[in-house]
């Protein structure tokens, strides 16, 4: 599984709770390779508490004393940056592009995503070791993204990138908007909808809501409204069934009256 | 700014630290509207500690006693689900589609993204109120995503969706088709739609289409379907007027029978 080739590297993390939360964030997304560079406190009960059920990732972490050690066997090294760093002319990835790149590269190679210290980030020396930078867009007035939250977002994007590769890119990435709404179900045809509109119109005439001599665009407005739904097969059955009930009850009643 | 129209709703959160972390997650992405439904502990020092510099979002949170109160003024209600819920044939969004949808809708309307309890998620009754569900893809062997982490991911996707709208005009115009149809007309609120649903349900029960002892998700399916329309004020009048005609005719008939 390619996600196991993506390594999360945390440099000199101050709060052990963040290490535990990062382990949990990784595991929820299927990542497992955690490397700690000079952690301030590790192991630590706070880390255990925050790891929840991800103690295997936490306890399996390797501990090293420099970033170069941490990434020695990696082909790709991506540093995270709180700033856009445009001035440094870095190759700057969006989290999405980072996830796609990491998932794709991880099919055959090892990728490291590197997170700096809570307050001060990565040193210049550490930046030198990175091939690319990724910047998570954030509120310019408050860009205080927790390090475990940053791990969560980039692990999530790695998983999305991975799923796009394994489940078929087209389905995952492109224009899912309307279709995502009715997952896996056929949208009915215009002809099918016409049957519904005729039934609706008949009922509206019957109940004197619509006067055939003065229709006031009522059916046009109904069509425009229902036309926005993208009605599925089972939903059309529901709509027509309810109309039949509204009509049927009346027919039944009429029949009773005639008896 | 449209992101202020996106409301994060947390239902009965057990751990106050999660509320604080959610506030921080929101603020890093530019969201500010937090609503708590029956929080177990709020306010609480643990929440303050986890909020870091996002105490304005945390302290500005509204506290209510039910989901329907929390979303009364919202046009779009998106529930989060830990499962894919394919069996229920929900309108199931990816986080990406959710972010795009929320950012686009939030330009003119209010959108709620609803997070359930840490252990048990949303109740069926709460699910009834949702128009769509979003599922964050996760490790099938360990899908224990922390609620604040889920808030982080969906807030992040909302920001990405927002940036795509504001920074890329092409994308904006392409996905506006549906809205063009209702251009310039007010979309009614969830509370307004509730009135319609109650009337529809009453008629369905009356005509024996819906058996209150065995409702078979009929109202949920109706809500999901009509929830996709973005009903305008004049359309709601049309819908309610037609239902009244369907009902009134019957009452009239009943009256005639009694005479």
Folded structure, characterized:
2 copies of one chain form a homodimer. Chain A is α/β, with parallel strands linked by helices. Chain A folds into 2 domains: 2-174, 3-Layer(aba) Sandwich (Alpha/beta knot), CATH 3.40.1280; 190-258, Helicase, Ruva Protein, domain 3, CATH 1.10.8.590. Chain A is built from 12 helices and 7 strands. Chain A has a 7-stranded parallel beta sheet. The longest helix of chain A has 26 residues, at 233-258. Chain A is elongated and about 85 Å long. The model of chain A is unreliable at 169-183 (pLDDT under 50).
Task: Give the SSE layout.
The structure is a homodimer of 259-residue chains.
Chain A: E1 6-11, H1 16-28, E2 33-37, H2 45-51, H3 55-59, E3 62-64, H4 67-70, E4 76-81, E5 92-93, H5 95-105, E6 111-115, H6 124-129, E7 132-135, H7 147-167, H8 169-173, H9 177-180, H10 190-206, H11 218-226, H12 233-258
Parallel strand pairs in A: 1-2, 1-6, 2-3, 4-6, 4-7, 5-7
Helix pairs in contact in A: 1-2, 1-7, 5-7, 10-12
Question: In short, what is this structure?
Answer:
A seven-stranded parallel sheet of chain A has the order 3-2-1-6-4-7-5. In chain A, helix 1 links the parallel strand 1 and strand 2.
């Amino acid at each position: 599984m390619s996600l196991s080739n993506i390594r999360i590297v945390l440099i000199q993390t101050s709060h052990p709770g963040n290490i535990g939360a990062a382990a949990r964030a990784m595991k929820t997304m299927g990542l497992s390779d955690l490397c700690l560079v000079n952690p301030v406190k590790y192991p630590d009960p706070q880390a255990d508490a925050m790891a929840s059920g991800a103690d295997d990732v936490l306890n399996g972490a390797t501990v090293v004393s420099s970033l170069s050690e941490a990434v020695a066997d990696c082909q790709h090294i991506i540093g995270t940056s709180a700033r856009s760093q445009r001035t440094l002319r870095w190759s700057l990835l969006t989290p999405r592009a980072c996830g796609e790149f990491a998932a794709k590269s991880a099919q055959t190679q090892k990728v490291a995503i590197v997170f700096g210290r809570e307050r001060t980030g990565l040193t210049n020396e550490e930046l030198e070791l990175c091939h690319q930078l990724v910047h998570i867009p954030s509120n310019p007035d408050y860009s205080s993204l927790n390090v475990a939250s940053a791990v969560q977002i980039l692990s999530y994007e790695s998983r999305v990138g991975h799923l796009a590769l394994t489940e078929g890119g087209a389905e995952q990435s492109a224009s899912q908007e309307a279709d995502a709404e009715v997952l896996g179900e056929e949208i009915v045809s215009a002809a099918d909808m016409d049957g519904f509109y005729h039934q609706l119109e008949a009922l509206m005439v019957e109940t004197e809501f619509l006067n055939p001599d003065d229709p006031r665009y009522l059916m046009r407005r109904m069509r425009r409204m229902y036309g926005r739904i993208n009605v599925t097969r089972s939903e059309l059955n529901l709509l027509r069934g309810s109309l039949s009930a509204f009509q049927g009850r009346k027919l039944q009643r009429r029949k009773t009256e005639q008896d």
